[in-house]
From TrEMBL:
Residue ranges of domain 2EXR in the record: 4-84
Taxonomic superkingdom: Eukaryota
Pfam family, one: 2EXR
InterPro entries, alphabetized: 2EXR (IPR045518)
Name the record gives this protein: 2EXR domain-containing protein
Length: 230
C-alpha cells in the first residue's frame, strides 16, 4: 500500500511521533558560496518529510541549519543521523556553523577548484577538530592513497572523537584503514604485499616473537580492504 489513508485520523500525538521518526540515512554535503551573498548550501535533495505538509515540517527531526546572519540560505539537517561531508578548507572558518552539533563528519581534501588540500589539512585544519565537542565519527577522504597516512593516527589529536571511530578512506576506491589496521597495512606495503619479511616500519622494543606476529597479521590482512560508499 503506497498511501496510508487513515493517517490523518490518528491522534495528533501519534502523528507527531511518527513525523519525528521519519529520517533518512544520508551523507549531507555542505558547501559554501563565497560571493557577496555568501552562505551555506547543499546539493542534496531536501528531505521529503520537510515538504509533506505543514505538520510534518513543524514536527520532523530536521531543522534549518548553517544560516549566516540575514542570509536566506539554509540547509535542512539532522545532526543525530546525518554524516556531514565538507571540504577541508571549511575547518579553517573562525566559527564554523553548527560545529558544536555535528556528530558524524567526513572531510574531503580538495578545494572548489579541485586542488589537493592534504598539506593544509595535515599542518593546519586538523587541529580545529577540537572545536567539535560532540564528534562521534570522523572519516578523512584522501586522494593520494592510504600509505602516506598510516602514521597519522598516532600523530594527531582528535578532540572528542574516539580514536577507534576514525577512518582514513581512499576517495577513489572507498577502501579504508583505522587505528587497528593502519600498522598492518603499512607492513603489507613494506613487505611487498606480504611476499617477504623485510620491514622498514620501525617499532620500538620489538622482539622476534612480535615481528613474527606482525608478519602473520600481514598474511591475514584481506585485500581489497573494507570499503565504504563515497
Amino acid at each position: 500500500m503506497a498511501t496510508f489513508h487513515p493517517f490523518p485520523r490518528l491522534a495528533p500525538e501519534l502523528r507527531i511521533c511518527i513525523w519525528g521518526f521519519a529520517t533518512e540515512d544520508r551523507v549531507l554535503r555542505v558547501r559554501k558560496t563565497w560571493s557577496d551573498k555568501q552562505g551555506y548550501w547543499s546539493p542534496n535533495p531536501v528531505p521529503a518529510v520537510t515538504r509533506a505538509c505543514r505538520e510534518s515540517c513543524d514536527h520532523c527531526s530536521y531543522r534549518k541549519a548553517f544560516i549566516i546572519g540575514w542570509s536566506p540560505r539554509y540547509i535542512w539537517a539532522n545532526f543525530d543521523c546525518d554524516v556531514v561531508q565538507m571540504r577541508s578548507g571549511l575547518l579553517s572558518e573562525e566559527s564554523l556553523l553548527e560545529n558544536d552539533e555535528i556528530r558524524h563528519l567526513r572531510i574531503e581534501l580538495v578545494n572548489e577548484q579541485g586542488l589537493d588540500e592534504s598539506e593544509s589539512f595535515y599542518y593546519y585544519h586538523v587541529r580545529n577538530l577540537r572545536y567539535f565537542p560532540k564528534l562521534e565519527n570522523f572519516n578523512l577522504l584522501v586522494s593520494d592513497g592510504l600509505c602516506p597516512w598510516t602514521d597519522f593516527f598516532k600523530e594527531t589529536y582528535w578532540g572528542a572523537c574516539p580514536s577507534g571511530n576514525i577512518r582514513i578512506v581512499n576517495a577513489k576506491t572507498g577502501e579504508w584503514i583505522d587505528e587497528e589496521t593502519c600498522g598492518v597495512y603499512q607492513d603489507y606495503i613494506d613487505t611487498n604485499r606480504g611476499m617477504h619479511d623485510d620491514y622498514t616500519r620501525v617499532v620500538d622494543d620489538e622482539d622476534e616473537d612480535e615481528k613474527e606476529a606482525r608478519m602473520e597479521a600481514v598474511k591475514r590482512l584481506q585485500i581489497p580492504l573494507p570499503r565504504m560508499a563515497i
